[in-house]
Every structure is written in structure tokens, then in C-alpha cells.
Amino acid sequence: MTQLQLPDTRQTAYSVSEVAEALSQAIENTLGQVWIKGELRELKKHRNGHWYFSLADEKAQLRCVMWQSNAQRVKSEPADGAEVFLLARPTFWSGKGDLRLTAVTLLQSEGIGAQQLAYLKAREALTRDGLFDPARKRALPGLPQAIALITSLDGAALGDMVSVARRRWPSIRLLVLPATVQGQRAEGSLVRALALLERVPADLCVIGRGGGAKDDLAVFNSEAVCRAAARSPIPIISAVGHETDLSLLDEIADRRAPTPSAAMEMALPDRNEVAERIGALGIRLAAGLRRRTELMRERMHRSGDRLRHAMHDRLHTVRVRVDRLGAQLQILSPLKTLERGYAVPRREDGTVLRRRDQFTPGDRFDLQVRDGVVAARTESP
Amino acid sequence: MSKSRKQEPAASLAESLQRLEEIVSSLESAELDLDDALRLFEEGIGLLRGARDQVAGAEVKVQQVLENAEGDLQLRDLDI
């Protein structure tokens, strides 16, 4: 039997606790909380809700624990061998001499893990700064004069947007701020274009891009792009071609549209509706003046001869002026239409009744005809 | 944006329509004397004509915004 080798007596021996404490300090201070990518193995769910499992790659394996409060936030239970991203803190449990990862968040990567991770980080930062607050959303201008379009000069989106403008509201001015909307340069390009919004005389901005592969849209989840959009002095409609998933830009923007064309429909009034509104105002304007002059005439009839004489000249001047203005008014289409024998039914508030369902039996309405207004009532719908 | 500043912007259509609504309401309800009524009517005719032109006329104007080396913005008409 060989003699037991004694420890070097010149060196003081550490206690187990001291070494364990030093390890614990070293481990916890070196890494802190980090994202770790790996394969999940041997998940055991304890009945008190805590999860115990291993995270492994080709060369190494680490044991993990996820407490019940965090485990319950994991959306779906990962299968054995699934690739996951774990936000965890390495912890040395001195009582058992165990090194464990204490997991806070578990995400299943399904191949897009890195993007998902970047997305979550950006979302967290933007949320912290209150940029998703619904109170930040601005209303769109009802009748814009100029719209800034941030889009690619080459894509179909620009042509689509111009077509909608031609059909819906041709008096609009479109200011195109060209931007690369996919690939490596897209982020910087979009940020630069968004920064120009402070210097461009537009009432509204549409960020437009046609549909495409989901990967191509990653730039619209960029924190820098979202922050640039949030700084815009004018409302923004995001139309970046997502069918199902909302991008962060969609959430930051004041409005979101499924396609660039839909964004323009949202941004622009329909010229037919506005023309009708103008026509109705023309009719009411003419009717209003007619009522005034009729009132004046009645008052004169009631007055004595002397006053009648004095008013005669006054009325003559007025009539000449009215005739002249009336002739101008004739040029405006709704009146010409009335001249041809059409009549316009209106509610008391001036609403033009166009459809059958706007008439209710017994309801009173005004019928505007060539020379005045007739009180009318609906007999049957 | 030197190019756009030279053009004095006309009253916007939204402003014109709002003023027209006011005029029509006054004519319909307020106790106006004939002179005031006529003045309002005349203003209304002018606004109507302007509004109608804005809706009916005009071609969509498409311009590209370019930033030159000095950082100034310029506009170039785009043919789309």
C-alpha cells in the first residue's frame, strides 16, 4: 500500500463553501442574463409547475430550470429536440454543486429564431418608450393636398398608388421619396426617407411595398425604422404587404393598410362624393337666397305706398344683381339638372336622399325643384 | 423646397367647403338684411366655382424628391 500523499502544508486549504461561493460569483458575474440558442432535451414538468430540462448542441450540454411563473408564459410546449432560444442566467447551486441555467423566456425558433429574437428586442425597447401607445395615433387629413410616398421607384406599388390617385382624387400632388424596401440597404434607406418628412410639404405619408416573401419584410421590424417613423411630423399609413403578421411599423404607424392601393383609398376622398357635396351646397345656396328675397318682397307688400315707392328702386338694383348671380349659378351643374325637370329630395338638414332605404313612410322631406322647395311626404317605401 | 414656396397655396378645398357650409347656414337661418345676404351669396358662388374646379380639373402631379450634395431638396417631375 502506498503512502498517502499529504497536501502541501504551506498552502491553507479552502473550505468547500468558500470554493462554491467563489464559483458562484465567477459564473454569475461573468455572463449575467443572456440569450442562448440550443436543442431542448428531456423536459420534465414538475407538478408544482417548474420545468427542468437540458439545453444542448453538438459538443456541450447544460441543465436548465424554468420556474413556474416563467414556464406558464411559454406559448406551446416544445417537443424533445426542438431548437429554442432561451433567455437565461447561469446559476451555481452550491447546495448540490450544480450548475444550472435559470431560464426566464423560452422561444421556439422554427428556423427564424434570429429574426424573432431581434423582433422581440426591438418590440421591448419601443414599448418601453411608449411608442405603441394608442394615444399617439393621429387622424388622417380629410382632404389632403399633398401625400409623401415612401416606396421603391421600381416596384409595382408606386404605379398602383398613382392609379388610385388618378381615379379617386386627381387634384392631389404626390411627392415620391425613393427608398430601398428590401435587402441590406433597406434600413438606412428607409430611415433617411423618413427623416425627410420634416422638410417635405405633405399632409400625410404612405409607406408602400408590394407583397413578397416574409423574410423580405424584416426591415419593417427594425427598431431604427420604427423610431424614424415615430418622429414623423405627419400621419403615416403603413402598407408594407403583410397578409397575416403585423410588423412593428404597422403598429407604430397611425394607420395600417393591407396594400399600397388600399392605403391610397384610405388617404384620398372620392371625388364623386365630394362633387355631390358641392352640388348640394350649390342648391342650398340658391334656395337660401331665394327665400331671403321672397321674405323681403312680402314685407314690402305689407308696407305702405311710400315705403313701397322707396323700396322699388332698391329692389330693382337687387333684382339685377340676383339675375346676374343667378346666371352664374346656372353654370353649376345641379341647377342645370333641375332646369331639365329633375328634383332633388333632401332632409331638413340638407342630406340628399339617394336610396330607397333613406325614405320611411310618413317622413317629411323637401323636394327641390327648379324654382323652389316643395314640402313632401313619403307614402310608401 | 424653394420651388414649392414660390407658389402661394390657394385656400384648401377643406377650408372652402367649411366656409361654404357656414354661408349656406347663415342664408338659411340667420336674420340677414338683403345686402349681407347678397354678399354672402356672391362669396358662396366664388367658393363653389373654385371647389368644383379643384374636384373636376387637375392631373395628378407626381414628383420625385431629391436631396443634392448640399442637402437641399429638389423636385423632379416623374412620368408614371
N-C termini distance of chain B: 22 Å
Order of helices and strands of chain B: HHHEE
Radius of gyration of chain B: 19 Å
Summed over residues and divided by their number, the pLDDT of chain B gives a mean of: 80
Query: Biggest sheet of chain B, in brief?
Result: 2 strands, antiparallel
- Give the class-level CATH name of the largest domain in chain A: Alpha Beta
Low-confidence stretches of chain A: none
| Tally of DSSP β-strands of chain A | 13
What are the secondary-structure elements of chain A, in order, as H or E?
Answer: HEEEHEEHEHEHEHEHEHHHHEEE
What is the quaternary state of this protein?
heterodimer
> Biggest interface: chains and residue counts?
A-B, 49 and 43 residues
Verbal overview:
The complex is a heterodimer of chains A (381) and B (80). Chain A is an alpha/beta fold and 381 residues long. In chain A, 39% of the residues lie in helices and 22% in strands. Chain A has helices at residues 16-31, 68-71, 113-128, 156-168, 186-196, 223-230, 248-252, 260-267, 271-302, 305-331, 333-339, and strands at 34-45, 51-56, 61-66, 83-93, 98-108, 146-151, 173-178, 204-208, 236-239, 255-256, 344-346, 364-369, 372-377. Chain A has a five-stranded mixed β-barrel with strand order 1-2-3-5-4. A five-stranded parallel sheet of chain A has the order 7-6-8-9-10. The longest helix of chain A is centred in the C-terminal third of the chain and has 32 residues, at 271-302. The mean pLDDT of chain A is 84. Chain B is of the alpha+beta class. Chain B has one domain. Chain B has a two-stranded antiparallel ribbon. In chain B, strand 1 and strand 2 form a beta hairpin. In chain B, helix 2 packs antiparallel against helix 3 (34-56). In chain B, 24% of the residues are buried. At the A-B interface, helix 4, strand 7, helix 9 and helix 10 of A face helix 2, helix 3 and strand 1 of B. Strand 7 of chain A pairs parallel with strand 1 (61-67) of chain B.
